[in-house]
C-alpha cells in the first residue's frame, strides 16, 4: 500500500486534530476560562477610567493572550493531561516534518481563534475601541506573533512532553524565548490602539522570528522525537 503524500497527510492530521478537539472541547474551555479570569483580574486591578490604562492596555492584552495560549501549546502533545499523544502520532506513516507542520497549524488555529474572542471581550471590559487601521494592525500582529509563538511552543513541547512536570518546564523555557517577539507584539498593539498601521520594522522582526523557528523546527523536529520514535 502506497503511503499518502505529504500534503494529504498534513491535511488529515490537521482535520483529525480539529475534529477531536471540537468533540471534546476541554482545551478550548480551559483556554477560554484562563483568558476570562486574567481579563477580569486586570479589570479589577486597573479600572477603565484610570489614565494608567492608556499606558498598560497593550501589555494587559498580550499577557492575557499568552496565559491562555500556553494551555493550547501544552495540548500539542498531551491529551487530557496525559503525555502519550506524541507516541501515538509517531505511529502515523508520515514524515516528521509533516507532523511538525500539522501540529503547528492546528494549534495556531485554536490559539488565534480564541485570542480574537478574548480581544473583543477586552475591548468591552476596558471600554476600548479600534478604528479600521488599528483593527488591521492588531489582527496582523496577532497572526504574525502567534505563528512564531506556536512554533517555538511545539518544539519545546516535543522536548518536555515526557518529563515529570513537563507542563511547568514548558512555560519556564518558553517565556524567556518569547521576550523579543513579545516586546514587538506589545509595541504593535499599542500602535493599534492609537489607530496607527503596523510599522515595516515591526513586521520584518516578527517575520524573521517566524521564519527562523519554522526553519529550525523543519530541521530539528525529527531529531527531537527520534528517541521517542524508537520506543513505539
Name some characteristics of this structure.
single chain, 9 helices, globular
Helical percent range? over 70%
Strand content: under 5%
Structural class: mainly alpha
Low-confidence region ranges: none
Order of helices and strands: HHHHHHHHH
The biggest sheet amounts to: none
Q: How many individual helices?
A: 9
Structure summary, number of beta strands: 0
The Cα radius of gyration reads 18 Å
Shape: globular
User: Which whole number gives the mean pLDDT?
Assistant: 83
Query: How many structural domains in the coordinates?
Result: 1
Would you give an account of this structure?
The chain is an all-alpha fold and 232 residues long. The chain has helices at 6-24, 26-45, 52-74, 85-89, 96-125, 132-160, 166-193, 200-224, 226-231. The longest helix is centred in the middle third of the chain and has 30 residues, at 96-125. The chain is globular and about 55 Å long. The model has no long low-confidence stretch (mean pLDDT 83).
Indicate the topology.
Layout: H1 6-24, H2 26-45, H3 52-74, H4 85-89, H5 96-125, H6 132-160, H7 166-193, H8 200-224, H9 226-231
Helix pairs in contact: 1-5, 2-3, 2-5, 3-5, 3-7, 5-6, 5-8, 6-7, 6-8, 7-8
In short:
By secondary structure, the chain is mostly helical. The chain has helices at 6-24, 26-45, 52-74, 85-89, 96-125, 132-160, 166-193, 200-224, 226-231.
Amino acid at each position: 500500500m502506497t503511503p499518502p503524500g505529504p500534503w494529504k497527510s498534513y491535511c488529515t492530521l490537521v482535520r483529525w486534530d480539529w475534529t477531536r478537539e471540537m468533540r471534546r472541547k476541554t482545551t478550548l474551555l480551559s483556554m477560554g476560562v484562563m483568558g476570562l479570569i486574567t481579563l477580569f483580574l486586570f479589570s479589577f486591578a486597573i479600572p477603565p477610567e484610570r489614565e494608567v490604562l492608556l499606558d498598560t492596555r497593550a501589555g494587559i492584552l498580550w499577557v492575557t493572550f499568552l496565559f491562555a495560549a500556553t494551555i493550547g501549546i501544552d495540548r500539542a502533545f498531551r491529551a487530557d493531561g496525559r503525555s502519550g499523544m506524541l507516541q501515538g502520532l509517531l505511529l502515523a506513516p508520515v514524515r516528521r516534518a509533516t507532523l511538525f507542520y500539522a501540529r503547528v497549524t492546528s494549534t495556531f488555529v485554536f490559539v488565534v481563534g480564541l485570542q480574537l474572542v478574548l480581544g473583543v471581550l477586552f475591548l468591552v471590559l476596558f471600554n476600548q475601541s479600534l478604528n479600521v487601521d488599528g483593527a488591521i494592525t492588531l489582527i496582523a500582529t496577532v497572526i504574525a506573533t502567534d505563528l512564531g509563538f506556536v512554533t517555538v511552543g511545539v518544539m519545546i513541547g516535543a522536548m518536555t512532553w515526557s518529563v515529570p512536570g513537563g507542563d511547568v518546564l514548558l512555560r519556564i523555557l518558553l517565556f524567556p524565548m518569547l521576550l523579543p517577539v513579545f516586546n514587538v507584539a506589545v509595541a504593535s498593539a499599542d500602535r493599534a490602539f492609537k489607530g496607527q498601521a503596523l510599522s515595516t520594522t515591526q513586521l520584518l522582526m516578527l517575520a524573521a522570528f517566524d521564519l527562523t523557528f519554522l526553519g529550525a523546527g523543519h530541521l530539528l523536529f525529527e531529531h527531537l522525537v527520534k528517541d521517542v520514535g524508537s520506543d513505539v
